[in-house]
Amino acid sequence: MKQLRVLVVGGGIGGLTAAIALGQRGFDVTVIERSDGNGVEGVGISQQANVVRALGGLGLAEEYVAAGFAYRWTEIYAPGGSLVARVPVRSLIEGYPASMGIPRPALHRVLGQAARRAGATIRPGTVATGIADAGSAVNAVFSDGTEGSFDIAVGADGIYSQMRKLIFPRAPDPEFTGQSVWRYNLPRPKGFDAMQVYNGPTGVGLVPMSDEHIYLYATTPEAGNPVFPTEGLAARMRERLAGCAPAIREIAERITEDAKVVYRPLEAIFISGPWHKGRIVLLGDAIHATTPHLGQGGGMAIEDAVVLAEELARHAEPEDAFTAYRARRLERCRFVVEKSLEICRGQLGLGPLIDNARAGAEMNALLAQPI
Ligand SMILES: Cc1cc2nc3c(=O)[nH]c(=O)nc-3n(C[C@H](O)[C@H](O)[C@H](O)COP(=O)(O)OP(=O)(O)OC[C@H]3O[C@@H](n4cnc5c(N)ncnc54)[C@H](O)[C@@H]3O)c2cc1C
Q1: Given this model, what pLDDT does residue 61 score?
Q2: Res 290: pLDDT
Q3: pLDDT at 303 over 70
Q4: Which of 36, 41, 45, 141 gets mutated to test ligand 1 (max ligand atoms within 8 A of its CB)?
Q5: Are residues 283 and 254 in the same domain?
Q6: Last-in-domain residue among 249, 265, 281
Q7: In the predicted model, what is the mean pLDDT of the chain?
Q8: Residues 161-201: tens digit of each pLDDT
Q9: DSSP per residue over 98-163, as a string?
């Protein structure tokens, strides 16, 4: 296939991975990213064996693993704090770990550097003020007044995707799930080397993400999707953890700095119809965003990017590649979105409480399949 000029809108996890995968195949890639480089949340992200495998396929396993903290099992605790299961996680590539905690800024650094090495041009602080699919090309006008013409455009601009609005103006907006998540970085206690998940109506997890740090997350019901001022966030987060296991309550005492609490409402969207229109295609949260209960949103965006690049390299016509890409991704992404929402609804009392160990094992078995 001809070496296309590709505009990637959004330099997040999916967009940067697309830039790497496409750049490595010789495509001419430009990434525009709205944020000026300081927009990434300072907390961590947990990722599973399928991510290590996908990044390994791009030659990044070494760098990626070195930038985070690898762990080989997940410990599941009852709400009261007793250990109920220690679930080993199986690596999918020889010599590399199965699961990772990694600070989000470190993940973005690894992906950004690799994208530039793959030849991509990254333009931080830039948005498109106009994008038009002219049939044989996608023409864009950028916020700095420059213009560009591309063979295709990839909307990797996250859950509130403007590219989705552009090509599917009638698509539903993301829906608030009734739950929000609170996150906070803490020093890593000596010997803390596995992810810990606490079952219960307030889902709590502790994830090692570097030799120095872990992060704590707590998913809580937040009826009406309230907006909180920064002042008082630490006290609110501690309050939410007051009914949790003693070990969590003890850790919660160290949540003291309002500005370091990262609070996010949890919203979801899944587009089950086409994922492209003409020469514009979507990936990642723009097309399937869910709650973080399985820790797979970023993983799905990364896998989308890899599959999209493979299909673009395989097909002469972009639209054939886009159709083949969606066919390979749809059911896998649907599973992650729906299973995550099931866990969320269970915690909210809107459905049966889902056993995290079982849901994790089911997910690992499915995601071990080739992408
Ligand atoms: C609270 C929370 C915790 C999570 N925890 C995990 C986890 O532990 N593990 C996991 O795998 N996933 C997790 N996720 C999900 C994960 O963060 C997302 O699935 C992932 O970031 C999606 O990647 P993306 O590239 O599609 O979108 P994003 O990472 O959101 O990137 C979109 C990018 O596009 C940029 N952008 C937006 N609009 C424009 C525009 N008009 N022009 C240019 N740029 C634009 C944004 O600035 C952003 O950089 C979590 C999500 C939430 C909300």
Answers
A1: 96
A2: 96
A3: yes
A4: 45
A5: no
A6: 265
A7: 95
A8: 999 999 999 999 999 999 999 999 999 999 999 999 998 88
A9: SEEEEEHHHHHHHHHHHHHHTT-EEEET--EEEEEE-SS-EEEEETTS-EEEESEEEE---TT-HH
Residues 256 and 329 in one domain: no
Q: Which atom of ligand 1 is nearest to the CA of 296?
A: 11
What is the value of pTM for the model shown? 0.97
In contact, 261 and 237? CB cutoff 8 Å = yes
Is the domain of 182 the same as that of 277?
no
Question: Among 228, 244, 265, where does a domain finish?
Answer: 265
Any idea what the CATH number is for the domain that residue 346 is in? 3.50.50.60
Q: Are residues 250 and 148 in the same domain?
A: no
User: Which residue, by CA, sits nearest to atom 38 of ligand 1?
Assistant: 157
Q: Which atom of ligand 1 lies at the shortest distance from residue 9's CA?
A: 43
What is the pLDDT at residue 1?
A: 55
* Confidence bin at 355 (pLDDT 50/70/90): confident
Same-domain pairing of 165 and 303:
yes
Distance CA 313, CA 218 (A): 41
Q: What is the CATH number of the domain that holds 249?
A: 3.30.9.30
Range of the domain at 207: 177-265
Q: How many domains does the chain have?
A: 2
Distance 301 CA to ligand 1 centre (A): 9
**CB-defined site of ligand 1, < 6 Å:** 9-15, 32-35, 39, 45-47, 127, 156-158, 162, 181, 264, 284-286, 292, 295-299, 301
Q: Are 171 and 276 in contact (CB under 8 A)?
A: no
- Cα dist. 365→65, 301, 332 in Å? 22, 19, 12
Distance 1 CA to ligand 1 centre (A): 30
Both 147 and 209 in one domain: the answer is no
Whether residue 101 is found in the same domain as residue 213: no
The dihedral built from the CA positions of residue 210, 355, 284 and 183, taken in this order, carries a sign that is: negative
pLDDT in tens, 82-109: 999 888 888 999 999 999 999 999 999 9
